[in-house]
Amino acid sequence: MQVAILGCGYVGLELGRQLDDRGHDAVGVRRSAGGVGAIEEAGFEPVQADVTDHEALAAVPDVDAIVFIASSGGRGADAAREIYVDGLETAIEHFGARAESPDHLVYTSSTGVYGDHGGDWVDETTEIEPTTEKTAVLAEAERVATEEAAEQGLDGSVVRFAGLYGPDRYRLERYVEGPVTEGYLNMLHRDDAAGIVRYVLEETAAGGASDGASTDADPLLPNDVLLAVDDEPISKWAFADWLAQECGQPAPEKRTIEERLAAGDLSDPAERRLRTSKRCANDRLHEIGYELAYPTFREGYRAAIEEYRE
What we know:
The chain has about 300 residues and is an alpha/beta fold. The protein has helices spanning about 10-20, 35-40, 75-95, 135-150, 170-175, 190-205, 235-245, 255-260, 270-275, 285, 295-300, 300-310, and strands spanning about 1-5, 25-30, 45-50, 65-70, 105-110, 120, 155-160, 165, 180, 185, 185-190, 225-230, 235, 255, 280. The longest helix has 20 residues, at about 75-95. Mean pLDDT is about 90; it is low at about 210-220.
């Protein structure tokens, strides 16, 4: 299987490595020379191109599937729209117009599109209620990835990532040193984020339910949404206490949401994010047969804790 990874950064590099290890041909696409160098170091084919530039995408070879995993670099809603909506539309139009067009598109979204559910559980059937301009952009991009992709003859799937962590992104000090504001953490290790996308690609390429085949694990259908999260959402306070204990440190200072808001130094989007609370269920992920490499934070943080204690 040939796969183009558009926006091949933190998760995309690991995805390319996993695809290569399993005998697939991965092509990583980044717009910067530094990004191209990172793809080369990861060991698979790089292409330097901007996902918002129709002509630049011509440098990407024909592939069986595309993964749109580009990042807006943590900037605001306008920058997010340029990448997630405009860039995605450009990619769909470009690849859909090719004589040898891809069969499948995977767009990676965020569980942020759910908004606030007061700490209740959410899954793929839960109606999304984005609370910020940026998460509203992500929700619009999900529509593009399914509806507009279908118009171009592509089967589109959306994978909603929970909070990513892993090498270079453990942020131990943030929780060990505190203060820690209350709320829930829904987490996913980088390796599983990449692994889930790889699994969706492989299951779709194998046919699965799209051709009427029956398997022990129900394969992900085209135009479906998959929530990518580990097995155990946890309160931030409980996670911080566990992490501090494992690191040999005293429990950090805690504060309520109202105490944090009282500081008065948050932007409106940050305040809305702070007020959102939910727990993400991964029943569907298990139903389709994916096995998590890091089922919970306990396994996922082990290497970081050992390094911290050395």
